[in-house]
Design brief:
Strand content: 15-25%
Number of helices: 13
Shape: globular
Radius of gyration: 24 Å
Largest sheet: 6 strands, mixed
Helix content: 25-40%
Strand order of the largest sheet: 14-16-15-17-18-19
Number of strands: 19
Distance between the termini: 44 Å
């Protein structure tokens, strides 16, 4: 299937160009398995007799993206890229796009990357230059939800947009059959008006609950959930990054924070409550909290991506004494130096990486305050929004205690935690004083270590709402 976007609301492709069209080959296998680069040139992989997936992609690329820009051809399947296949390391973990710099990191065919290029060139009977253009448009995604989970997710969307919901106790799911009926009628292309008319004829229009006002901030693209598809407004910072790494270090202060601040203040203007979706770096989650801080007078809900997507807020659930608290230790690094590093490991341990980086790169840090949940780090260590807010409040108080009378000392913050926690901690930035945030190189594009990002507050900018 293909989707053509309204250019005023479209995302950017992996090269920073406006995404005009998405062509998606959906492939559902009854039994989950793995695939690699050779399956993409095997017609049997898509149950075809003659033409492979890549041959079809090449035809589409020549027709709709002759220069390789603004169009994406994506395989979406419940099969996963084989860990042992050379293609896996060349696919972006954020956007699913094929990373050209990795596919072409060697010049000859006598390497893993060269072997892929050679197999694809010979199968497609094209030149190296033509393959490079095609490769710019390719992307890969996986769906691990079972059919019941997908049906439950669709039910939520139906409720929002006003389509008839199918109760869970009904065995039949008419939307499945309807697709085949439309295909048999050669009804294959819809715009907004014709799709609504078709749904009306089928008796599918119901009473929508209305979309909540959601404001999105993204510095990376979620593989199957574009914020533009469901948010009132989206601040798209993706073009400023190459995967996880920022393209220009100075943009944290000179570009990203001013844009984030202006976006959030406009969203909060005249509203006592708002909902945020943060598909963004740790630094931006903290910065968002510093803008909408505890004195802003706004109630903020956050979409938190856990095993499922949940709405977290500071008062979403009653307090529970069974929730884990924080345990901490202080590590001396350079006694006598004024600054304090804070290593927050709610989802996974970070102290060892932080200590290595601090000892090598930040001589002004005298001590490291390392904190983690009393239950141990893990993706389920934070139960809800209230729990995240309580942990952030406790950590802010502990940081002030450890800093003691050195009010001018810098706090160096290294965080592995849900973005909701980081947002709530950012709301307490005025209490913490000067804070420098750090980002970890997850992709390995630099040295799989930390790099300084944003320091708050920024002189001459008032962060309060």
């Amino acid at each position: 299937m293909w989707v053509e976007y309204d250019l005023t609301r479209s995302a950017s492709d992996s090269h920073g160009n406006t995404l005009r069209r998405d062509h998606i080959q959906c492939k559902w296998h009854v039994t989950p398995d793995y695939y690699g680069f050779r399956q993409l040139i095997d017609p049997e992989f898509i149950n075809a007799n003659a033409r492979s997936l890549l041959q079809r992609a090449l035809d589409a690329q020549r027709a709709y993206a002759p220069d390789g820009n603004g169009v994406r051809f994506k395989l979406l399947t419940n099969w996963r890229l084989d860990r042992s296949d050379a293609l896996r390391e060349m696919v972006s973990t954020r956007s699913g796009a094929l990373r050209i710099e990795r596919l072409y990191k060697t010049a000859t065919d006598n390497s893993k990357a060269g072997g892929i290029r050679k197999a694809w060139r010979e199968h497609l009977k094209i030149s190296e230059a033509e393959l490079r253009v095609l490769a710019r448009t390719l992307a890969f995604g996986e769906v691990t939800d079972n059919l019941d989970d997908l049906r439950e997710g669709l039910d939520t969307l139906f409720a929002l947009v006003g389509l008839r919901r199918i109760r869970a106790n009904e065995s039949a799911f008419p939307y499945d059959d309807l697709i085949y009926q439309w295909m048999g009628q050669d009804s294959l292309v819809f715009d907004r008006e014709s799709f609504r008319a078709a749904c009306s004829r089928e008796g599918l229009l119901g009473q929508g609950q209305g979309r909540p006002l959601i404001y999105g901030v993204k510095s990376f693209e979620h593989a199957i959930d574009r914020l533009e598809d469901r948010c009132t407004s989206v601040l798209n910072l993706v073009p400023a990054f190459d995967e996880r790494s920022i393209r220009c270090d100075g943009d944290w202060t000179g570009v990203l924070y001013p844009r984030l601040r202006a976006f959030l203040l406009k969203a909060a203007n005249g509203q006592s409550a708002l909902r945020l979706a943060l598909d963004a770096h740790v630094t931006l989650a903290f910065a968002a909290g510093s803008v909408l801080n505890v004195k802003s007078g706004r109630r903020v809900e956050l979409e938190q991506r856990t095993a499922d997507k949940r709405i977290w807020s500071a008062d979403d659930l009653p307090p529970d004494p069974k929730w884990p608290g924080l345990t901490s230790e202080v590590v001396d690094v350079a006694p006598g130096q004024p600054d304090l590093a804070v290593a927050v490991g709610l989802t996974h341990e970070v102290l060892r990486d932080v200590q290595r980086y601090v000892e090598r790169a930040v001589p002004s840090i005298g001590r490291i305050l390392a904190v983690k949940p009393s239950s141990g780090p893990g993706w389920q260590s934070v139960a809800c929004g209230r729990h995240a807010c309580e942990l952030a409040t406790a950590l802010a108080a502990q940081i002030r205690t450890e800093r003691g009378g050195a009010a001018s000392a810098m706090i160096h913050l290294f965080v592995a935690a849900p973005n909701a926690f980081t947002f709530f901690l950012g709301q307490r930035q005025p209490l913490l004083g000067r804070v420098c945030l750090y980002e970890f190189d997850f992709e390995g594009g630099r040295d799989r270590s930390y790099a300084p990002a944003l320091t708050l507050p920024i002189p001459d900018l008032r962060a309060g709402a």
